[in-house]
Write a structure and sequence with these properties.
The chain has about 425 residues and is of the alpha/beta class. It has three domains: about 170 residues, Molybdenum Cofactor Biosythetic Enzyme, Chain A (3-Layer(aba) Sandwich), CATH 3.40.980.10; about 80 residues, 2-Layer Sandwich (Alpha-Beta Plaits); about 150 residues, Maf protein, CATH 3.90.950.20. About 40% of the residues lie in helices and about 25% in strands. The strands form four sheets. The protein has a six-stranded mixed sheet with strand order 2-1-3-8-7-6, sandwiched between helices. The protein has a five-stranded mixed sheet with strand order 14-13-15-16-17. Strands 10-11-9-12 form a four-stranded antiparallel sheet, sandwiched between helices. α12 links the parallel β13 and β14. The longest helix has 22 residues.
Amino acid sequence: MIQLQSIIMRAEILTIGDEILIGQTVDTNSAWIGAELSKAGFDVQRRVSVHDRHEDIISALSQVAGRSDVVLVTGGLGPTSDDITKPALCEFFNTRLVTNREILEMIEEMVKRRGYPMNDNNRRQADVPESCTILENKMGTAPGMWFEKDGTIFVSMPGVPAEMKYIMSEHVMPALKSRFTTQVIIHRTIMTYGTFEAKLAETLAGFEASLPGNIRLAYLPCYGVIKLRLTATGKDAGSLARQVEEQVGELRKLIPDLIFSENEEPLEKVTGLLLREKNLTLSTAESCTGGRIAGLITSVPGSSDYFKGSVIAYNNSVKTGILGVPEELIREKGAVSEESVRSMAEGVRRLLGTDLAVAISGIAGPGGGTPEKPVGTVWIAVASENRTATEKHTLGRERHVNIERFSLAALNLLRRQIKSL
């Protein structure tokens, strides 16, 4: 077992805003900040969100002081009355608000350039706690602010993502990297499809037990895809990279049929790369997914090189009138059947003149199921010149989840068929 010495620097993220707590705004800032800190070797220990209330902000700041090396704060720095972070910071750091002339001039120039009149709310953005170090914000009017107390660095930044990212990239991360000698952290994410989490964990129990002490394995399931994240920590990046690659090699031996990417590439990108590599074209015929498969495929830049188009055959009249599915087939077997999706795939392949075609028909729910075909039933087909492969899944009852899982199942069947050609 390899034991590496490392310097662990602790970090916490504090977001301020009622809109986050009530679900009106998704907190993407914390995810981005956490990723940046982790890449720099910081151990992100907590993410906390609090109300736009003076006492809640003071309480949150008091709890983290001295507990972590770095605390990054976002939100509450706007020009309106509900933005109260700066007064709370003044109380916590025992300082007062003062007008910073350089910031005021920058705000005046920015407002003028945008063609808006300057008002008192804009001017108040130039009021900053006297004891802080100002971090210039060229993306907006609210500056970042750097404080230190009880051995902890506090950095307060705007909640607007573009402004926060600018301050983090231009000021915060360079300063932290120059000040701290941190451990090296390497994340490697292996993408799998074709089993469920409990079964995969059982399969990999021996692998996980034999991992070196400085490497951890995490299971991250989402819509049928299970990400296996290996996290290695230590002091030497080269040594860690070699260790991680060794463990990836072990996974290749243990679950070769389940792995579709070793670098966190989604199924739509992997299938696109395979299509381009083999110079193949693709079309889709979708019923229950309503165009979701085509949407995933075309989300990949350059997909027009291999994707020709799609027919959304939501109604049976489109299946029969455009794709050429026989009406008697649908009457006898139903729209959600192996025979119907086979006919849909072969029909759209002929119609659009592609090498491959994916077709799907299912019952996404919440209604429409029968004892023979319950909600969550889906049939998928992939047609090529010489054969048409089909696959049936029976999943859950939640419509949105089913649509996502149906779509990924279709992409995985497509991936497997491309590899077999």
